[in-house]
Design a protein that fits this description.
The complex is a heterodimer of chains A (about 220) and B (about 425).
Chain A lengths: L2 H9 L1 H22 L14 H11 L5 H6 L1 H19 L2 H11 L8 H24 L1 H6 L2 H22 L5 H18 L7 H18 L5
Chain B lengths: L2 H13 L2 H9 L5 H4 L2 H4 L13 H11 L1 H8 L8 H13 L6 H5 L6 H15 L4 H12 L8 H15 L12 E3 L3 H6 L2 H13 L3 E2 L10 H5 L2 H18 L3 E4 L3 H15 L6 E4 H10 L13 E4 L12 H10 L29 H18 L3 E4 L2 H13 L6 E3 H7 L4
Parallel strand pairs in B: 1-2, 1-3, 3-4, 5-6, 6-7
Helix pairs in contact in B: 1-5, 1-9, 5-6, 7-9, 11-13, 13-21, 15-16, 17-18
The chains are: A mainly alpha (about 220), B mainly alpha (about 425).
Chain lengths: ~220, ~425
């Protein structure tokens, strides 16, 4: 397979396979959560489940002072890499072009040099997260194979994207193909791993807020 | 699979719903729940990470309620729930968790981890992996009517003393009374002043109340041990008594898990909404205050702080009421750091106090409370849970700290205006 054939495969068939697995997998996972259902709470309510649930979906992104102090590294590095992923994925001009091609929607990009710098920061923050995971007693205890696998498939698109943008070590079509392939690996593994939290955390937060708010506590 | 293990697995299956599925689907192993748990912060043992305590439930969810898990199970790839796992988890689930709910407040993806540990207990109990002390308390609750073995004659004797001390009649089995008071065995045996305080306050306020001789025990061992059937039976006794006496409101006393049991879990356990209201005594006193019926005189000048019982504050929603009440009788009220919904547990809720095996860890994790108290050095601690109170008193003594404990209702009663 020539490098052009490789590139057109990852852009065509490969991409389609990855997207189908991603979309179908995510739908299955979310359905199997929601279809289980939940019993109606028969206790007299002290507050509203709906407003509490919606509120916690947002407020849980902002920890209280004591929690911030106790979980500083996790929170700061976590924030940096999540924001970094968002910026590099959605606010990089070539990505927006790709989204426009697929969905027809378009939005303004950030300057390329800025996104480039954010990419480096995001990669560094992910290495800090891995180091913290290896060194912290609780995190080392909790870490399993999946945690490492997910870390790897998350950082790979960033690294391959950075290399492709700077044309390091190979020709442009090959570098781009490798970058797209790394994203496809991420998409395929997404529904089978904790990457699913990107969707389910909103359900979880809603339930948490709803349960708490029903009893009159803002969580 | 042995019959008891099968019972445990089935009990766990019954606990899985969309909340559990969304929580387990969202966990990213960030470890922040450990930083929120006094059993981790004070012991440094990573096994005490809250989400780890739910492992038996997680395995059942994964292998039975996810498509990929079911496929994995067929291929023999998923981890099973077996006797070894349950035996190992017994101490994590019962000795190292007070169901305080702090982890549920910090989890960044929003997992209500505490509710899942509570659910895990259902499986542990069904399979027979429960601490002796909690089994004993539960057996006494079912057969005698009280986890401490307090029978009606003991209550009547205490009521006799209270009537002598206060000169007030304690109304028993009065049909049509507005309020029906429940008591914890701890209050009956160790703090009978509570009954006297209620008599004085309700007399001043002019509210009718009664104690049922058929159902006066407020605590619910079925909840602590994690057996819904028993919990439901204990709740039903109260429902029957309240309906018989046609009361409007049942009062949950100064006991944390009793409030959780009757106010929030109660109707769900018996499967239908109550025909009466359930209020914590602090909520009732707050209503009296707002109506202008509760009047006090004199202010405590000593530095008071308030210890929020987890099930009453964070898990129960009674947070502002005690503060409004304390401010009626104090001009020197100081909050501990993290007070209110983020307060740290004293370490003896959720059945830990009736589990002797947990004595050592219980006193160790009290360090967290000690640090909170050291920050403000109060002259006295006010609380609204007799289980917290007993544990705080014992632990303070253990740590050589001389800070008296006050029940909020009693303190208010002492300040009633003439």
């Amino acid at each position: 397979m020539s490098e052009i054939e490789f590139l057109s495969w990852v852009r065509g068939t490969g991409f389609q396979i990855a997207v189908v697995i991603f979309v179908a997998g995510v739908i299955i996972r979310i359905s199997e959560v929601l279809l289980l259902g939940r019993k109606t709470d028969l206790a007299e309510a002290k507050g509203s489940s709906m407003s509490g649930g919606l509120k916690t979906m947002v407020t849980r992104s902002f920890p209280d002072a004591n929690t911030l102090k106790r979980s500083m590294v996790t929170l700061v590095a976590g924030y940096v890499f999540h924001i970094g992923l968002f910026v590099t994925l959605f606010l990089f001009a070539p990505h927006i072009l790709m989204f426009k091609e697929v969905t027809g929607l378009s939005w303004p990009a950030l300057p390329t040099a800025f996104v480039d710098a954010i990419t480096v920061v995001t990669i560094i923050s992910l290495f800090i997260i891995l180091a913290h995971r290896m060194q912290n007693t609780v995190l080392r205890f909790l870490t399993n194979f999946e945690d490492i696998l997910v870390w790897l498939v998350t950082i790979l698109p960033l690294i391959t994207g950075y290399i492709a943008f700077h044309r390091i070590g190979a020709t442009a079509p090959t570098l781009l193909a490798v970058h797209i392939l790394s994203v496809e690996i991420l998409l395929v593994l997404f529904p089978f791993t904790k990457l699913m939290h990107a969707f389910t955390l909103f359900i979880a937060r809603w339930y948490n807020g709803a349960i708490s708010s029903y009893r009159g506590v803002s969580s | 699979m042995s019959a008891s293990l099968e019972a445990g697995v089935n009990a766990l299956k019954e606990q899985v719903d969309s909340t559990v599925a969304s929580f387990f689907s969202s966990c990213v192993h960030c470890g922040m729940c450990a930083d929120a748990c006094l059993f981790y912060t004070e012991t440094g043992d990573p096994h005490n990470t809250p989400i780890t305590k739910t492992e038996p439930l997680r395995r059942i969810w994964k292998s039975e309620y996810t498509l990929f898990g079911r496929i994995g199970k067929k291929l023999g790839l998923v981890k099973k729930v077996d006797e070894k796992l349950l035996a190992e988890w017994e101490t994590l689930v019962y000795d190292s968790c007070t169901l305080c709910g702090r982890c549920s407040m910090v989890c960044p993806v929003g997992n209500d981890i505490t509710s899942m540990i509570r659910k895990t207990r259902e499986g542990m109990a069904a399979a027979g992996y429960v601490p002796e002390g909690v089994i004993g308390a539960t057996k006494r609750a079912v057969t005698i009517g009280s986890p401490m073995g307090v029978k009606l004659p003991a209550l009547l004797a205490q009521i006799g003393h209270v009537e002598k001390d206060t000169g007030l009649k304690i109304p028993l089995d009065v049909e049509g009374a507005e309020y029906m008071l429940l008591l914890s065995s701890m209050e009956i045996m160790n703090f009978p002043e509570f009954i006297g305080s209620i008599a004085k306050i309700f007399d001043k306020v002019g509210a009718s109340w009664t104690i049922s001789t058929k159902a006066f025990e407020a605590t619910n061992s079925g909840i602590q041990i994690g057996v819904s059937d028993i919990a439901a039976e204990l709740v039903q006794r109260i429902v029957d008594a309240a309906e018989l006496l046609k009361v409007k409101t049942v009062i949950s006393p100064e006991c944390g898990h009793a409030y959780m049991a009757i106010r929030w879990e109660g109707p769900n356990l018996v499967g239908k909404p109550f025909g009466f209201k359930v209020r914590h005594i602090l909520e009732v006193l707050e209503t009296f205050r707002l109506d202008g019926r509760l009047n006090t005189s004199g202010l405590e000048s000593k530095k008071l702080t308030y210890h929020d019982p987890c099930q009453i504050a964070r898990r129960g929603g009674v947070i502002d009421e005690p503060r409004n009440l304390i401010n009626m009788i104090s001009d020197n009220f100081v909050e501990m750091p993290d007070a209110g919904k983020m307060n740290w547990c004293c370490g003896a809720g959720g059945g830990v106090s009736s589990n002797e095996r947990a004595d050592k860890v219980r006193l160790k994790v009290f360090q967290r409370k000690k640090e909170q108290l050291d920050e403000i050095r109060p002259d006295a601690i006010v609380s609204a849970c007799s289980n917290c109170r007993i544990n705080l008193e014992e632990a303070l003594e253990e740590y050589g700290m001389e800070i008296p404990l006050l029940g909020l209702t009693e303190t208010i009663a002492e300040h009633l205006a003439d």
